Amino acid sequence: MSKIGVFICHCGENIAAKVDCTRVAEVLGDHPGVGASVEYKYFCSDPGQESVKRAIRENNLTGVVVAACSPRMHEATFRKACAEAGLNPYMCEIANIREQCSWVHNDGEQATDKAIDIIRSMVEKVKRNNMLQPIEVPVTRRALVIGGGIAGIQAALDIANAGQEVVLVEREPSLGGHMAQLSETFPTLDCSQCIMTPRMVEASQHPKIRLLTYAEVEHVDGYIGNFKVKVRMKARYVNKDTCTGCGECITKCPQKKLSSEFDCGIGKRTAIYTPFAQAVPNKPVIDKDNCTYFKNGKCKVCVKSCPLDCIDFEMQDEFIDLEIGAIVVATGFQVQNNAVYGEYGYGKYADVINGLQFERLASASGPTSGKILRPSDGKEPENIVFIQCAGSRDPSKGVKYCSKICCMYTAKHAMLYAHKVHGGKSNIFYMDIRAAGKGYDEFTRRAIEEDEAGYVRGRVSKVWQENGKLMVRGADTLLGRPVEVAADMVVLATAMVPQPDAKDFAKVVGIGYDEYGFFNEAHLKLRPVESSTAGIYLAGACQSPKDIPDSVAQASASASKVLALFSKEKLEREPVIAVNNEATCAGCWGCVLACPYNAIEKKDILDRSGKVIKRVASVNPGLCQGCGTCVTFCRSNSIDLAGFTEKQIFAEVMGL
Amino acid sequence: MSIEQQYRTRAKELLSSGEVKMVIGYSKGSTPDRRRPAFISTPEDVETLVLDGACIANLSGYLVTEGLLSDEKRVAVFLRPEGIRAINILAAEFQLNAAQVEILGFNTEGNEPTALSGSKVDDFAELIGTLKGIIPDTAGEELYKKLEAMSPQERFDFWQSEFSKCIKCYACRQACPMCYCRRCIVDNNQPQWVNTSSHTLGNFEWNIVRAFHLSGRCVECGNCDRACPVNIPLRLINRKMAGEVLEAFDHFAGSSQTQEPVMASFKKDDTETFIL
Ligand SMILES: Cc1cc2nc3c(=O)[nH]c(=O)nc-3n(C[C@H](O)[C@H](O)[C@H](O)COP(=O)(O)OP(=O)(O)OC[C@H]3O[C@@H](n4cnc5c(N)ncnc54)[C@H](O)[C@@H]3O)c2cc1C
Ligand code: SF4
Ligand code: SF4
Ligand code: SF4
Ligand code: SF4
Asked: Which residue, among A513, A530, A498, has the nearest Cα to B272 in the 3D structure?
């Protein structure tokens, strides 16, 4: 006979303001099979948990329903409390009467009725719960960090410095990401390269870090503690073991006019190239699509120039298989393509550039050696107009969100311009100045007060060329009048957007993403660095627009999660896994295909003489993640999910 | 030589040479317009085989009879194009090994059977390709158009009144080659998802579950609606589902032996309109 305890939590005012908890407790107290029904202000608090434990012992409860917030919040808390009171933790369930009831209803009467229904339904389920035992799985103590920008490098270094192995995968020929492209960085104006390149070197030389550049993750299988990862090593056409990075080939390559990705199209590169002089590893790759030999079958100038015979046109992509325990995704962002703003003339006028291009102009390692010169004629601009929110906070053409960093880097750009071009005049069109952060408001104030950046509040409607000048027309909404400025250069503070392949990548790795393609965290507030897939963590701008301090902080947080996971030899996993009924299975093997974790195998059932009498599906409990996909697929209802069996679900539905 | 005679001769050869252990075809039925399945294992009996315009039943379902193909011997079977598609599905769902099936393919134009060339399921790939997306010109054509023109509410009412006739005899399931499960979901009574009594709710549950289970699998052979004692036009609800999976996933049931089941597979470019 079931004796279920029902614990109705007020959640302060969160639940009690709408739901009449006293009435709920009374009604449930009379429900068949309920052995105790009580309410309390905060069951998750220490005295609250103690009262649950006491009730279990005193009433010999066989199951527990805590009617409170979402199970994502406190299921683990209450299961632990139940275990401490001697009850199998899987005999405890949460009835969500907060997110799914009190928060979303106005009418208290109806909310109370609904809360009763939700709890009753859960009581019916718990009556049919089974005592499950957690599954133990071994942990492979090796982390994979995907993306070699500042976030990825930080995460890799933190994990490696704690003594654990790391594989760092970067798809470009060099580490560095966007930070390597920046000139000086807000809010301190220290030189980006000077703080970035030593980190890149450290990562590449660390004995615990295996660096795979020009490499991409092809396939991820498995689960927390036990991922199997396939990495594609793209053919570099240069033997990276023998190459010393002397650069002879680069100087000789006849293809000199290719647009440099690293310099955002402002600089040029050759077909055999390293993205920038401080690249790590500092060894070139051949851009197959633009190499004369690959195009016409003739050239091989690089082969002749290389003193060590490193160039190999026959090289093929190679694959590496890795066993991995935890993954940190740090694949960063892209800047939006400003061509969507036809009215600003990006792509049409050479002197309308984006913020990242300005970084390259201002960078000492850039194509102009740090001089601010117009791309069109190489002259020093006497006047620059900066347009903020060129893409951000613009649902019609750009993105709805705020990119968070543009206010800051535009202030930085105005300062750098003032420092580099004396007498240069800047005008910044802005909607708001968002400068929340340590030293941030002081920084923008400095731009205005010391470096005389001219802020104009309003949007720009049009940019056009007239008499060799770029005419910028906008509105000054504070003065309530139109303004027109003649500029030598226009810089657009472009929105930060996800990598173009972010959604496909998310599917390969098996994590969720939002409507834009930024990766989803498990809980925005309480689990901001964990993805929704156990064992996969997020770092940097791949999750949302971030500046360097935030990216680094999140990377270190991810690293600490990985290290916590690696601190144990074995991992306890929820026993919520699929179980197949071989007697009824029709052997259609649809579930084998449907299972996203390849956890189902084909199995022959033999008679005594070894003859196959039946072929069925069989679930590997080590691999099953309990997602339930197979259960929904199986037409004969042969597969069931422990903890969510059909009987339980049916009882839940009928309990409503 | 008539096609009937031609196929009798072929059946005889297959049996005499031992190439197949059985021929599944048609023989005379209880009334002049009906044919009954024939299971012939001796060359002498081939004379009872009939092939004419009344041979419309899809015989592929008999191949998955427990144990029939487990000795790895081959069986020949008379099949129309829908039946051949059914072989592909059964093979794709691992219910049979298509190499064990010798196909005696035919079609009926007007009232006359015509022979289809080929004997292995893959021989008919081209033919099946030409059928993709074409709504077969079969019984119910008119009604289907009428249903498509209805508002959702009208359509719902239509099916509600049709399903209210259902007596839960499960003849549709027994007749369908795709309903090969050892235990059908309706026979599961722990818990009893589908109400057993024949009232509106239970009937709806049953018929909708079956339509879902056949989405991307029904070949429109019509076995079900011919079997239905109360004449529910079951095939039409499956036709609707076939149209949906074709449009959403470019899936035409029974295109090949290696076709992945539409409900168990996904492609990166599948539409995601139903999830966020
Ligand atoms: C114009 C501009 C100016 C800025 N100025 C400042 C500033 O002054 N101060 C500041 O704090 N912040 C600044 N930022 C923000 C700063 O650039 C970011 O915060 C930082 O670069 C984020 O680092 P990340 O590692 O997350 O991403 P990224 O730097 O984008 O690095 C991601 C890396 O992952 C790699 N990658 C992507 N996909 C894959 C894949 N599938 N497989 C393998 N590798 C992959 C990429 O090649 C890249 O190397 C600025 C940004 C812009 C656009
Ligand atoms: S889907 Fe169901 S019937 Fe088919 S193989 Fe899997 S368990 Fe068996
Ligand atoms: S529940 Fe089923 S589909 Fe999901 S992981 Fe387990 S076996 Fe695979
Ligand atoms: S549902 Fe009906 S028409 Fe479709 S394959 Fe089965 S019996 Fe044939
Ligand atoms: S054959 Fe007709 S009456 Fe019988 S169960 Fe099927 S739909 Fe109902």
From this structure: A513
